Amino acid sequence: MLAIYNKFGIKESGHCCNGSRDLPPCSMECQTFFSICLFHYVTELADDPTCTYGQTSTPVLGGNSINKSSFLSLNYFPVTMSFDFSWPRSFSLVIDANHDANNNVSATDRSQRILRIFVVDDLKPSSNWIFKDLRVNQSHVWFKYRVVCEEFYYGPSCEVFCRDRDDRFGHYVCNENGTKTCLPGWDGYFCQQAICSSSCNSSHGYCEEPYECRCRYGWTGLSCDQCLTNPGCIHGTCERPGECICNDGWIGKKCDIDLMYCVKHKPCLNGGTCTIDMFSNYSCSCLEGSNGRNCQNSVCNEIQCRNGGVCQIEGNKTLCKCRENFYGEQCQNTKVSCDDIQCLNEGTCYFGEFGAMCTCEKGYTGIFCEREINECDSHPCMNGEHKSSFSLTIVICSGRVEQPVEMDITIILANAPKTMEVKTVNSISILVKGIVSTKEHAHTKSIIQKIRNRGIRNQDKTGTKANKQKPPPYEKKRTPDMRVRPGAQEE
Hints:
Elements: E1 3-6, E2 32-39, E3 54-57, E4 65-66, H1 68-73, E5 90-99, E6 113-122, E7 130-136, E8 139-145, E9 153-154, E10 160-161, E11 165-167, E12 170-174, E13 180-182, E14 186-187, E15 193-194, E16 205-206, E17 214-215, E18 219-220, E19 226-227, E20 236-237, E21 245-246, E22 250-251, E23 257-258, H2 261-265, E24 273-277, E25 281-285, E26 290-291, E27 297-298, E28 310-314, E29 317-321, E30 326-327, E31 333-334, E32 348-352, E33 355-359, E34 364-365, E35 371-372, E36 387-389, E37 395-398, E38 409-411, E39 419-424, E40 429-433, H3 438-452, E41 456-457, H4 462-466
Antiparallel strand pairs: 1-4, 1-8, 2-3, 2-5, 5-6, 7-8, 9-10, 11-12, 12-13, 14-15, 16-17, 18-19, 20-21, 22-23, 24-25, 26-27, 28-29, 30-31, 32-33, 34-35, 36-37, 37-38, 39-40, 39-41
């Protein structure tokens, strides 16, 4: 409402609104308020229409004349009506100006109506106003109207919802039709899709913020147009992610084997031969006498020859060539000379590979031939169950008894170099084999004498000669108690 001018202060009926007079000039002004009714399109207006689209009313706004400033001061400009349905465009509008006679602002008392305005129209929502200037009866009215959609609603029926936003649900503003207009850098129906940089490969790159370029798995580069090689690929490229296509001169799964490594670096030393190795770039075939990855080690460095020995290579083996009087794998042993030892019991010394050694006469053993061989240790008795020993060097074995009066007896003088055979009339045999010491020699003679006293005669005098051999000389060089064994190490 813009203004109303009721010059005479009368109602629709022509009577005064207020005061002592019924007809103009009226003594008092009208108490004017407005009621508005909005409903569907009709061609004929009923006296009491149904406000199907809505209705509203104002308080008393003034007297006979009310201008725009009065409406503004009372915050009733404009007068608004809300609806919760799609706008049908065609409508009917009734505006009544009434006199408040009973201070109850009731529009139902038609007798208090000052004027009625009836408007039918077909109107799209718009920000533009429709202006009306009407004269009704004795009054003059100025007003304007329009249909606008509520906030966030657009379209000819106000049914398009659109609200500006700039968050993860969208980045846009709404135009006058409710159409979403994306903010710069965004695209899509809800403007949620960022626009990548112009150089970004659309197949291999993407973006979450405008004008960036993030690469998908397997691709790299500012434009995501470079594939990533297989992890570990050193001298290779790819056409698709995960490949490793070797550059010229390189081979291997990771293109890390240099075909020219042997030529460039010559890694094999000491005359070794270099060949390409698929596992470690190269390998060296070493000549005899060297080893190591690069044939850098001399085989002789791995052993230490002692006592002045010299390392030599024979075939695939290394050995120490020892100086005179030394032996062992490292020449660690000292040889003993024949001047350092004494061979007993007529043993003979000879100088061999491991130094001086004794060769013993028959019946003796030991490093220095110092021990007699005990014939009993070899179990010489045959066909008997009993053996008798007259001494440590003589053994008598009982023979197999076939007749009670006939028995063979063998007497063994252990470790003797010569033998004698003694027979008796009772068929008793005696075998004598040397002696070891003077003491044993005397004891043996005593035993033989006892046998003779029993009727046994000596038929061979060679036994007497054998039993008379002298014991070996005993010198104070090295005796069996102070022996030096072969293999003794040098102090």
